[in-house]
Amino acid sequence: MTSHVAVIYGGLSAEREVSLVTGRGFVRALEEMNYRVSAIDMGRDLAQILAELKPDVVLNALHGKFGEDGCVQGLLEIMGIPYTHSGPRASALSMHKPMAKTMMMAAGIPVPPGISASLDQAASRHLMVPPYVIKPACEGSSVGVHIVRPGDNRYPATLRDGWVHGDELVIEKFIPGRELTVGVIGDRALTVTDILAGTEFYDYESKYAEGGSQHILPAKIPQVVFDRAMQLAVQTHQTMGCRGVSRTDFRYDDSVEGVGGLYVLEINTQPGMTPTSLVPEQAAFCGMSFHELVRWMVEDASCAR
Fold it and tell me: What pLDDT, on the 0 to 100 scale, is given for residue 297?
């Protein structure tokens, strides 16, 4: 029986503030369930702190670089401490968008057409006919994402301005329509949420600001599309080698008949668990309270398999 849980949160990435909110929510829930909890704002002394604390389990509430990309997972593997979410390989592959897309395509999972490019290449000229999307290769929470539309004179010339997201980019065809998402717990899809963003797309502000988006669940879409999204979320989770909780995000062009307009954008191996987050909302819809979800995550924790 797990009794001592270390919650690691905060960290060093661009998603630090979101991670702090997620981590605090985990700490409250665990304390209310009478776990012994150690809250750790992750720094470069994490190994030393964990060696001193000797927790039974680490609940990883980090997002982005160092926490979601296999780095912390590798450290926990070396230390032999069971932890939540996916292992080093699945985390690294899922975080790296070009590699994740390659694996998904090989598995027959539909993804938007796109290419990889350097920052210099993407800033020098249009590498695709607008509209298209520019994404950092290794960021989450829509950090650094730009939509380039026909006639938009800002891009690509101003792309370098303030860019701090690395030299490797993904350029993808923009898929019009709706933003859908499906949470997976273990190998079970929860439901489909239709996200109505208050901004141009489901960006960082829409994800985490109160009132930034509306979540309609279950999504009011054709049953065949609903079922296909549920199936693809589980397939993506398994293809990438994920475990625990994940969330797969989709674009759905509802002007296309059948399932031909449904595309997987990415998989999140450590989806947000803030008050506005999607997975806790879907779990509650399926009858699982936030406390039950957290307990399941803790009891499911392990080293990579």
Answer: 96
Q: For 168-182, write each residue's pLDDT tens digit.
A: 999 999 999 999 999
What distance in Å separates the CA atoms of residue 109 and residue 236, rounded to the nearest whole number? 7
The pTM of the full predicted model, rounded to 2 decimals, is 0.90
Report residue 299's pLDDT band, with 50, 70 and 90 as the boundaries: very high
Which structural domains are found in the chain, ordered by start?
Answer: 4-85 (3.40.50.20), 94-110+176-297 (3.30.470.20), 114-173 (3.30.1490.20)
The residues carrying an active-site annotation are 15, 141, 208, 247, 249, 266, 268, 272
The closest alpha carbon to 11, from 26, 25, 22, 27, belongs to 22
pLDDT in tens, 6-27: 999 998 887 888 899 999 999 9
The span from the CA of 185 to the CA of 220, in Å, is 22
CA trace torsion 41, 47, 51, 52 (10° rounding): -40
Rounded Cα–Cα distance for residues 18 and 4 (Å): 24
Beta bridge partners of 178: 252
d(CA 303, CA 305): 7
